[in-house]
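Q: Is it fine to ask for two folds in a single conversation?
A: Yes, each is treated on its own. Send the first.
Q: Here.
A: Result:
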Amino acid sequence: MAAALLATATLIGACSKSANDIPEGETREYTIPAGTGVRIDNGEDIEIVPSRIVLHVGDRFVVHNEDDREHSVGPYVVGAGETLEQRYTTPGLLRGLCTLHQSRELEILVLRAD
């Protein structure tokens, strides 16, 4: 819940429609496999999500964490065994730490749905 609030507060821009009026878009779904944290600890290069994701208003970003530890995924933290699901209702840019690839940063760009 806190991650969703952070993302909403971080988004730049405004939307005159309510979330219920925005058509459903695509879903980008990623899974953090069990053992990912151990692989990171052992120095393996991990690339589960790209360093930049481009979405549109109405799209969903979903991360399933099957690992036994939490992971940072841009502006979100996904706890062990938890699933993050974020639907974007306004255009904007979100950035943050990402433990799931070598650059250690994730940028999520949300564009207007045209």
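Q: Second one now.
A: Result:
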Amino acid sequence: MKTNRIGLWLLAALLATGCAETRSVDQDQDWVLTIGSPQSHWARSDAIVVRTELRYVGPGTGTEWFGSSSGPLAFDLREINGTRHLEGGMLSDCRRHEMRADGPLVVGYVKPGGYSADDPNAAFYREFLADPLLHLPPGEWALAARAVFSMPPDCGTGRTVSLRASVILTVA
């Protein structure tokens, strides 16, 4: 009985300090997009860890898809109750790609970029994009992954796949 109380206390302490994993999933009939972080609360000094996975779950052992040569994923960053917001983009070219059912695309968070030098948040954007790690100032932040591409026969003529998943992280 004493061991169970200690285990429950430890679990409650971990949840209260934000050590619980956070993740979000979006899917259609053939694809699953997942974004997650091992914890929902981070310190300003922490290098934040985010993992994104795009998985083919349709029929057969894999499929081809058509989209940007930069890949099917783009990432967004939005300060909740704030003014800082960056959206990721993709190259507008069209290339044929393949994905096997047993070989999902797994990547970390890729910082979105692009801002005007006269934007009131330009100093933040410049510092954020220059840091090779993912550090954020205190506040609540939405980090999103978007998957956008076409199924055969080609870009724009096949069924468009458009998935979006996001997590909320708190930085203190």
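Q: Anything structural to flag on that second result?
A: Two points. Residues 20-171 form a domain with the Immunoglobulin-like fold (CATH 2.60.40). The two ends are 36 Å apart (CA to CA).
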